[in-house]
Design goal:
Helix content is 62%, strand content 15%. By secondary structure, the protein is α+β, with helices and mostly antiparallel strands. It contains nine helices and seven strands. α4 runs parallel beside α9.
């Protein structure tokens, strides 16, 4: 590439210099002949001298131009060569070192490439962590099921109602985990656009979701406080119902008080709609609040596995809300928790 560019540019320079020089030479010779400044013999010598200097100037200019052009082209193409080398490393499964960034268009390209590498690294790390977490989640219930079934089939133990109930709970845990993994994967590969969005009265969706849990609220003696402000937004109604179901399900499962409060309000100059689910629950350390929406993250894995938690419900909430262009979060003082999400309001 370097030598091709140098060759092409040198040819252009030589042609320009030669055409310019020939024009100057011909004009000088014309003046000499027209006004008889020198005799015929001296005129021919003058023409030969002009031709010699023209040729020498062209060769000298070409050589100088080639050297200058070589250094400039090398400087320009060096980032591209480094970019090409890094791209080849990536095709081989090797993440290259960050490229040097300069203050020009090629520097911006290098910066974007570095950002792409960083994003791919994070995605790869996230994938590996998730596979490890899934393997860990599946290992325990599968080992329990396999151990008990093997013991039952070999006659080492006799089955009773309590044992079969325990095996049933492990099976339900596996089904729940696989189902939530499917939901999360489906939303991660889904991209909401105008063709699948519809106008939604978010306050009605909230009230309908609360009604679905009325029996559970009654059985667990939980008082429900609902305060919603009417608003219309564009989105996927099934997805938003899933968000509210997950938040209310978690609030009921880990509730340690006698109330659950659900609020829906317009905020940020009526440009956003904020939904908050508040209740008293298990203690959440402040350093774990920022991780609560991560996939398969659980504050106390052993205890939550026993109560049926998979660590995916809030990750699904985050993915769905992110697809809607909103944000999620948790405000907690340790015991009183407010899980919230925001959605852009249709204008």
């Amino acid at each position: 590439m370097v030598w091709k560019l140098i060759f092409v540019n040198v040819i252009v320079i030589v042609v320009v210099i030669w055409l310019t020089g020939v024009s100057v030479k011909d004009f000088a010779c014309f003046l000499v002949n027209q006004y008889s400044i020198v005799n015929k013999e001296n005129g021919e010598l003058f023409n030969e001298t002009m031709h010699f200097y023209l040729l020498r100037a062209s060769i000298t200019a070409s050589i100088v131009a080639a050297f200058i052009h070589y250094f400039f082209i090398r400087k320009i193409l060096s980032p591209l060569q480094a970019l090409t080398k890094s791209a080849r490393q990536m095709t081989s499964g090797i993440y290259p070192n960050p490229l040097k960034v300069t203050n020009d268009e090629l520097g911006q390209l290098s910066q974007d490439f570095n950002q792409m590498i960083s994003t791919l690294k994070q995605a790869e790390e996230s994938r590996k962590n998730m596979l490890g977490d899934i393997s860990h989640e599946l290992r325990t219930p599968l080992s329990n099921l396999n151990g008990y079934l093997e013991a039952l089939s070999s006659g080492v133990i006799d089955g009773d109602k309590a044992l079969y109930r325990s095996l049933h709970e492990e099976a339900k845990h596996l089904i729940r985990l696989v189902d939530q993994l499917h939901q999360l994967t489906s939303w991660e590969t889904k991209r909401l656009n105008s063709s699948v969005r519809e106008k939604i009265a978010i306050d009605k969706v909230i009230n309908n979701s609360v009604q679905l849990f009325e029996l559970e609220f009654f059985n667990k003696n939980i008082e429900v406080l609902v305060e919603t402000e009417p608003a219309v937004l564009m989105g996927d109604e099934i997805g938003l119902k899933q968000v509210l179901d997950n938040l209310l399900h978690n609030a009921i499962r880990y509730n340690r008080g006698n109330f659950i409060k659900l609020e829906g309000r317009k905020v940020n100059g009526d440009h956003l709609y904020r939904v908050t689910v508040t209740n008293k629950g298990d203690f959440i350390p402040s350093d774990k609040v920022s991780h609560i929406f991560e996939r398969l993250y659980r504050i106390d894995p052993a205890r939550q596995r026993a109560t049926g938690g998979s660590g995916l419900g809030l990750a699904i909430v985050k993915e769905i809300i992110t697809q809607h262009g909103g944000q999620v979060g948790l405000d907690s003082d340790g015991g009183l928790h407010s899980f919230w999400f925001t959605l852009p309001i249709d204008s």
